[in-house]
Amino acid sequence: MAEDFLPVCGEEILHVSNLSVNRSGNEVIQDINMSITCGEFVGIVGPNGGGKSTLILAILGLLKPRTGQIDVYGKAPMSKATIGRIGWVPQAATELPHNLRITVKEFIQLGLLSSNFLRQYLDFFISPPAFFKQRKKNQIKIDKIIETVGLEQYANTMISNLSGGQRQRAAIGKALASEADLLLMDEPMVGVDVDSRNSIMRLLDNLCHDQNKTIVMISHDLASMKRTAHRMIYLEHKIRYDGIAEDFPDLSSLAELRGIEATHPEADSTKSDVTKSDDVVIIVSPGAEGGES
Fold it and tell me: What are the E-state strand segments in 85-228?
């Protein structure tokens, strides 16, 4: 990745067309079509087993599609051109061994182990001045990232001594150290307290607005995503909703999208504006009186 590269918002970062993926012989996601542009904060929500993690793993190139195509920056996943441009924060990012002897700064520095690492290592033997110059630039960069994620006073603290929210900030910092423009996050708020969650969500939103980062986050927390994400995708094997977060359907409308019938229809006083045609779902935004606050 070019050192001074800054994505131009509006540029298509990710394009998925007619994607279907099988796992253990079963089709998990089917006919997925979506496009994500630079600077978007996209929340992917849906039930357990609906295919959210499968979609992320396919985008990363860790799962092979049965049908369809994925383009990241116009290239196939895991191609040489995308190395270092995609950051992944898995759900287990904060589940670190309690006896891990590594500081916050050292942990974030692990993000530097990207495609440029081998070249920098060889510079030590080929051109020592270039090596030490790059090393100094890396130190400045890491210090700036630590400041960005709000962990300045914990830079030299053992990461095992941090709270869940602070470890999550460190995991985000590690992804940023890789110079990734696209951050894929799988349930990063699990086990994080409310105050830390709000702070981290503000941080991520600022990264989109201030640094043109693109964030795709898997979450079960519909309320949090609706309050934070720019766009929401409801995935249950297929995409059932894709639109701005403000227009995300209320619970009654969402149940209809999923084909869930009311056990007590007389109690379901809200009528959603949802149209179905075979397997294609067309969303019409529900009225303001039916939406979530």
Answer: 86-89, 182-186, 214-218
